[in-house]
Amino acid sequence: MDKYIDKATLFILCAVFYAQYRLDLYIIVPIICVVILSAFMSYVDGDRLRGLAALVYFAACIPRPVFVFFLPVICYDLFYTKYQLGLVLILGPAAIAFRTLPPMTAVTIVLIVGLSYLMRRRTDALEKTQSGYIALRDSTKEFSLRLENKNKELMEKQDYEIRLATLNERNRIARDIHDSVGHTLSNAILQTGALLATCRDDALRERLGVLRDTLTSGMDSVRVSVHDLYDESVDLTAELGRLADGFDFCPITLDFDMDSNPDKKVKYTLLTVVKEALSNVIRHSDASEVSVTLREHPALYQLIVRDNGAPKAPGGDGIGLKNIAQRVESVGGHVNIGYDGGFTVFVSIPKTR
């Protein structure tokens, strides 16, 4: 845009100076010619075409010296090209100008040519500065986005590690309770039962019965608490990773994209479906590749287990497939099992509100 402003400024300056020198019927001819050639030089990208257009204009200055008045406009596009040496040709029209025009007019034209050189140099320097600024801004923005993504990945990894550590700690607590408190309560219940078997005092037997019932109730409460702790400590990502690591029938890819922690029933259902599907691949397929995809959507969880093999033998629904359907339906989900260039198990389970 700055180049066009410079050229418009030079054109107006040259036109005003030209109008003071000559006012007749053919005054418009040099103006039209310089507008056409200047527009052509601004439109084309090749330096060769620009140099050719400038050469044509320089040649026109020899028989028609009035064309010399608009030399600054033509020279503006010729500056800073590989044909800068072609500016030597301007000496010919300049000599004609000094010979046919008043000396002051010729000197003024030369000064305007020098002004066009300075304007072009200033505009080029400004464009380089702007280009450098834009490149720096883009690189800074790109770096900022990359840094933001890295920070996000680190935060997600940190949250996952904290959650995994919490689940492992819950699992350890559940094992400790089961091994220590559960073992102690079991011994107490057995000893109480032994006392009941040997005691002949009815009043004491009644009290021992109450004690046994209390210990049994405490044992049931501990068992339920331990199971709840263990169920909550199941990490779906880690369990699927273990299943994938233990599957050596063929290469397997795991695509896991979930942010929330599903209900324990949903966890066990998804794990059961993956286990049964991988077991069916081993027993009933000649696949060379298996993919397991688990994604979370706003309203549901989606599981897709797909292989690229053909069934070894045709048949109806087996027990394993019925088990998959029953487990999925028990949590309100839907399952679609089919074959299309490979065996596919598609499961969708709605989120509980």
From TrEMBL:
Keyword Zinc on entry: no
EC number(s) recorded for this UniProt protein: 2.7.13.3
Catalytic activity: ATP + protein L-histidine = ADP + protein N-phospho-L-histidine
Enzyme class: transferase
Highest taxon listed in the record's lineage: Bacteria
Keyword Ribosomal protein: no
Pfam families, per the entry: HATPase_c, HisKA_3
Family matches, as Gene3D superfamilies: 1.20.5.1930, Histidine kinase-like ATPase, C-terminal domain
GO molecular function terms noted in the UniProt entry: ATP binding; phosphorelay sensor kinase activity; protein dimerization activity
CDD domains cross-referenced by the UniProt entry: HATPase_UhpB-NarQ-NarX-like
UniProt domain Histidine kinase/HSP90-like ATPase: residue ranges: 265-353
Chain segments annotated as transmembrane: 25-44, 56-79, 85-118
Assigned GO CC terms: membrane
Protein keywords: ATP-binding, Kinase, Membrane, Nucleotide-binding, Phosphoprotein, Transferase, Transmembrane, Transmembrane helix, Two-component regulatory system
Protein's recorded name: histidine kinase
Source organism of this protein record: Sporobacter termitidis DSM 10068
Lineage, uppermost ranks: Bacteria, Bacillati, Bacillota, Clostridia, Eubacteriales
